[in-house]
Amino acid sequence: MLHDIDWHARASAVALPNRPFIDGRYVDSLSGETFACVYPGDGRLLTDVASCNERDVDRAVQSARAAFESGVWSRMNPADRRRILLRFAELILQNREELALLETLNVGKPIANAYNGDVVSAANCIAWYAEAIDKVYGEVAATAHDMTTLVLREPLGVVAAVVPWNYPMSMAAWKLGPALATGNSVILKPAEQSPFTALKFGELAIEAGMPAGVLNVVPGLGHIAGKALGLHMDVDCIGFTGSTEVGKYFMQYSGSSNIKRIGLELGGKSPQIVLADCDDLDAAAAGIAAGIFANTGQVCNAGSRLIVDEAVRDSLLDRIAAQALNFAPGDPLDTSTRMGSMVSQEQMERVLGYIDAGQRDGAKALIGGGRVRNETGGFYVAPTIFDGVRNDMTIAREEIFGPVLSVISVRGLDEAMTVANDTVYGLAGAVWTGSLRNAHRAAKAMRAGVVWVNCFDRGSLAVPFGGFKQSGFGRDKSLHAMDKYTDLKAVWFAH
Ligand code: NAP
Ligand code: MG
After folding, report:
1. What is the pLDDT of residues 414-430, one digit of tens each?
2. What architecture does CATH give domain 271-460?
3. Please, what CATH class does the domain formed by 2-266+471-492 belong to?
4. pLDDT in tens, 63-104
5. Residue 484: in which H helix or E strand, if any?
6. Across the beta sheet with 486-494, what order do the strands follow?
7. Is 265 a catalytic residue?
8. List 125, 265, 278, 399, catalytic entry
9. 222 lines ligand 1 (CB under 6 A)
10. Ligand 1 within 6 A of 401 CB?
11. By 3-state DSSP, what share of the chain in percent is helix, strand and coil, each rounded to 5?
């Protein structure tokens, strides 16, 4: 159990996977290069990890292609594929301690979150798609009486999943679940900050009975390993989660190689709208604080812009500031910590740069506004609330990916919606209101893939997740995600 474990002791003893996992086993990289993996909780070097280059990626693609063409997975009886994926999910849960610890060491998130959240949600996701395998049907189209026409879904072949570091296991699982369930072979490229759990997944898949080559894991740098996957002529599809900037590269890679399919889950600048008729400011304050401070704000759908009606502004801000006290940064390996470190020194500096920009532009920091826990050597930023923000300021326009809330005051629903939609992003948004009519009006007006009414960050595997506008296209989660990893085939039988 979480609280019975001496996590610091476990941390100094745990084995850190650091070699690529290709064709069913750990191998030495062909590149011979490495990159450093640092524990952001105290800044110490954990290990050097193999940095895969084009040749390593090519080796993984060949293995994945061979597995796909052989049919060991792609043509396996669906019931058997389901059994193996369910076993994979079970093994993720059985290795909960180790996976949670590896995740916290990589990214500095609180061990309680990794243990109770990330590991469990990754396992649930794999299991959900395993269960779906033999419950999704093809179609029979209404064609002429003397024809029978089937509409079938077939796997694409070799899928590369390129994922970020904020929820490494979940983001990987959102791709692996539907891609593997539909019979593809997969190459997983974790973010350089978070290779451990991805590599461990490769090992657990084999233990679950997945044939070698069906899941390969290539740790490496984005502009080398990620780019090599994007440009590879024998990769059929990219499932990407990350920044809008890199998402644009993948569109270019696809266009300059083989028109590989792409699904893009990108950044956001999600609005939290609080209307004058909000009838539960305490609930709103709790949702808004968690929506920007959970996971240190390193969340694609973080509610980073608070768009609040002047009528309730002061009482709401007092409540949010009180809620923020729950998110004082602490030791990630302490089970009571609710906010850990930023993922890296680089990310901390990026966030501090945005805090400077907010100050320069004339916004006023109500709480926070700087680095804390310097003495640990780790990379911690205090929960920060900026009041007096205009929607044209840098901190209202750019994705900060840190615990920084920008407060923009408005009057009435119409102005709130205009400000909310004045962004290049469209991932998610929320409205807090006691009026059914305003709730519906706001939900319709919001240009975003996910809208929450009187709640925030609710999710379920049964519900699609993804963005409008420059937050990307294609959906993770739900049966819709399976569309991304399959092609439709129409088969006409003349009688
Ligand atoms: P990122 O820099 O875009 O990186 C994402 C992945 O792409 C990493 O594996 C990265 O590898 C790789 N990459 C980087 N540069 C590349 C290049 N030139 N060519 C090919 N691949 C490249 O994003 P991040 O910093 O890891 O994560 C934060 C971003 O992810 C935020 O913008 C956030 O909004 C977004 N995000 C979106 C969602 C969603 O579902 N919409 C969920 C989570 C996060 P390296 O790490 O080695 O650079
Ligand atoms: Mg990056």
Report:
1. 999 999 999 999 999 99
2. 3-Layer(aba) Sandwich (3.40)
3. alpha beta
4. 999 999 999 999 999 999 999 999 999 999 999 999 999 999
5. helix 481-484
6. 139-141, 147-155, 486-494
7. yes
8. 265
9. yes
10. yes
11. 40, 20, 35
